[in-house]
Recover the amino acids of this structure.
């Protein structure tokens, strides 16, 4: 009996060591995939953001609205790049998960407004006003302040989870509200272009149709994916890569026939759509 115990103890210790080693390897692999995913997405977003902010366009007044939309989109990509950089270089999700959730919620709230305003401005050049811009900035500051208060003042546990769920619901509702405004503007533009029978307009409508719905679905889902388990976060990060590539290609292609589209929009009296 004593011999069996002596042999059993080293075997048990060896098995425990192997389990611990495999756990460490899996966690390291997950962390490495996560960091590589962030690195790939960050490089692409920084390139696209700098291009959108600095690339030249024909020096003609008709391109002013396109340039404004593209620069707003560039700022949105810079905001997301800062978020990704903080996660990549400081590992906030692993060291301070509460702060990571707050940063993600605040970043997505601001990005929702920037993305939707950039796309809506392509279809309605009168949409962006100083008053509307300031109003949405106040919404963002209020959302961030309340989210931060929940994380700092509400005790950890069920009440804090309920508060975070409430803020995520607020973010989701805000995204749906902006998406509704964008889709309404898009549908109005489609009905406006139905009588043109132009290949350029048809190509524009295809792009806006694909990208509008992609942006709506992906943008709203980002708020929910903030709470993904750590093991699957890299899938969410990688899913952003084709989205931003398509965004870049769409803006590049749109420039080719922008004058034709904008000239048709300028000929029509702007139709005010509620909301936003």
């Amino acid at each position: 009996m004593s011999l069996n115990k002596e042999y059993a103890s080293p075997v048990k210790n060896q098995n425990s060591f192997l389990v611990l080693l495999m756990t460490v390897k899996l966690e390291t692999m997950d962390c490495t995939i996560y960091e590589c995913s962030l690195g790939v997405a960050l490089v692409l977003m920084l390139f696209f953001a700098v291009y959108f902010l600095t690339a030249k366009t024909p020096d003609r007044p008709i391109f002013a609205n396109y340039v404004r939309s593209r620069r707003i989109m560039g700022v949105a990509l810079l905001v997301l790049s800062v978020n990704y950089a903080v996660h990549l270089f400081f590992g906030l999700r692993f060291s301070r998960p509460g702060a990571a959730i707050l940063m993600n919620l605040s970043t997505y709230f601001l990005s929702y407004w920037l993305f939707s305003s950039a796309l809506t401005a392509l279809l309605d050049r009168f949409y962006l006003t100083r008053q509307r811009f300031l109003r949405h900035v106040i919404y963002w500051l209020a959302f961030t302040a309340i989210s931060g208060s929940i994380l700092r003042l509400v005790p950890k546990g069920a009440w804090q989870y309920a508060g975070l769920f409430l803020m995520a619901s607020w973010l989701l509702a805000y995204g749906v509200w902006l998406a509704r405004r964008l889709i309404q503007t898009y549908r109005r533009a489609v009905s406006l272009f139905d009588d043109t029978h132009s290949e350029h307009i048809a190509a524009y409508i295809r792009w806006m149709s694909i990208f509008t719905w992609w942006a709506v679905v992906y943008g709203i889902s980002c708020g929910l994916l903030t709470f993904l388990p750590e093991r699957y976060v890299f899938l969410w990060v990688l899913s952003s890569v084709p989205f931003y590539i398509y965004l870049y290609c769409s803006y590049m292609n749109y420039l080719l026939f922008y004058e034709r589209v904008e000239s048709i929009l300028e000929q029509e009296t702007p139709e005010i759509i509620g909301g936003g």
